[in-house]
Amino acid sequence: MRVSATLVSAMETFDVLVIGGGPAGYVAAIRASQLGLKTACVDAFTRDGKPSLGGTCLNVGCIPSKAMLDSSEKFEMITHEATEHGIQVQGATVDLSKTLARKKGVVDKLTSGIAYLFKKNKVTSYYGLGQLLRQDGDAWIVSVSQEGAADTEVKAKNVIVATGSNPRELPLAPFGGNVVENSGALAFEQVPGKLGVIGAGVIGLELGSVWRRLGAQVTILEAMPSFLAAADDAVAKEALKQFQKQGLNFHFGVNISRVEQTSAGVSVTYAENGQETTAQFDKLIISIGRVPNTGGLGAQNVGLALDERGFVKVDPHYRTNLSGVYAIGDVIGGAMLAHKAEEEGVALAEMIAGQAGHVNYDVIPWVIYTSPEIAWAGLTEKAAKERGLNVRTGQFPFSANGRALGHGDPRGFVKVIADAQTDKILGVHMIGPNVSELIGETVAVMEFGGSSEDLGRTIHAHPTLSEVVKEAALAVEKHAIHM
Ligand code: FAD
Ligand code: NAI
Fold first, then answer.
1. C-alpha 138 chain-centroid distance
2. Ligand 1, atom 7, residue with closest C-alpha
3. Does residue 394 fall inside a structural domain?
4. Is 55 close to ligand 1, i.e. is its CB under 6 Å away?
5. Atom 3, ligand 2: which residue's CA is nearest?
6. Does the residue 480 lie in any domain?
């Protein structure tokens, strides 16, 4: 039963109501509250039948995937790499139920942490589906509905849409049974003998790596003739070499024509170089990108403008076409990354509070948590040249670094791309051990408009992996020391 309009006008009015409790939404809510705005957040996500804040990232994305990557990497280390260090381990096995329970523990801790942060920051939390209903004076009325309970209506002067994204379905292979998206692929109760993956993007590479390390035979089917289009060509080339060496089986330029669920699993028919093949898998992961999630929002009823691909249209201040309604995160497109979503949350909260929020879209780090890891920020060499820029590049391998050799993981390199005239760093691209952590330093230098000389003249502790970053910067001027 709905509360009447008269009663709604009498109800408390929030300064900000955020719809969606993922990285964009929960961060916007916390920041808005820190700035003295009376804030609420409504989120509909459930895990194991219970409300769970944190959105895709904490529940079925960034966090559980990294927990599984770490567990599987430890297993790979023990079974394949320990002997190199003189460590003999016999009969190592994986108890997958414990691996999954550990992953759940990590997720539980972090999602309940958001609930704690909401309490601490006095953000009012609603559970249910938030739907834009109508304007009431200069405020909006949003209904919050949950199955089996009466709708609640919430009034707010500013509404932030942060409803995120959903996995893109392949029309000829709807999700269900042995055809899974990210949630299903993070929860197989047994290691599949044969695992098919459609899409050699970030999810395909990360989750394909997890299950290969745990014992699956993994085949990745990719429509494009190559992969990692956004990474520097040198990094993509090295990544393919390393992944193939590990046993990931890639097919590029494929055209999938049929996917059938059988009693034995899933059969996939695809054409490659004009030849049709049918492959049998126990499980099939579909990871072909993500689509904006505006389904439950009431966008049509209130006339919220979406673009041709369904993303909420916003201006540079995250304003939609509806006065007082803003949108951030995956639902507005761009890089579908948690840290991009979070920065938009902070920037928008600050703008609503009358401050000058800002996101620097030129320096967003990307990290792929495979082994070796891949990370980059800024332009690739090719993209810089396409923009008509003259560039100089410096590259330095981990194989010439003492710490990497000590670790027993000297794969990969760091490549710095600088403007030939000004020496300003335009991009940094890495593949190698722990580059997820090394990219941060270069992002900070780029954020301040730093040069390769700035990076090369900065003292880096010895022996550390970070010396490879310094040496790559020195290599721009052709005076790396250890090469
Ligand atoms: P979401 O996290 O999707 O949150 C949106 C929330 O809104 C959800 O809780 C949803 O239930 C809720 N919602 C939707 N509609 C309504 C409604 N009408 N009413 C109420 N609530 C609603 N990014 C990284 O940066 N690093 C990584 O390592 C990484 N790994 C990933 C791994 C996987 C497997 C996947 C799938 C994604 C990964 N991502 C990663 C991407 C990252 O998860 C997203 O970019 C990020 O979650 C986007 O945040 P968001 O707040 O915009 O949306
Ligand atoms: P993606 O966009 O990274 O890759 C999709 C791949 O599928 C592309 O290579 C594309 O060419 C291919 N493809 C599309 N249609 C196809 C078809 N019909 N047949 C075969 N191949 C096809 O998308 P993915 O992997 O689903 O991930 C979604 C997003 O989630 C990422 O883009 C990223 O934003 C985010 N993410 C980020 C992570 C990180 O930061 N480490 C980890 C995982 C996801």
1. 36
2. 20
3. yes
4. yes
5. 201
6. no
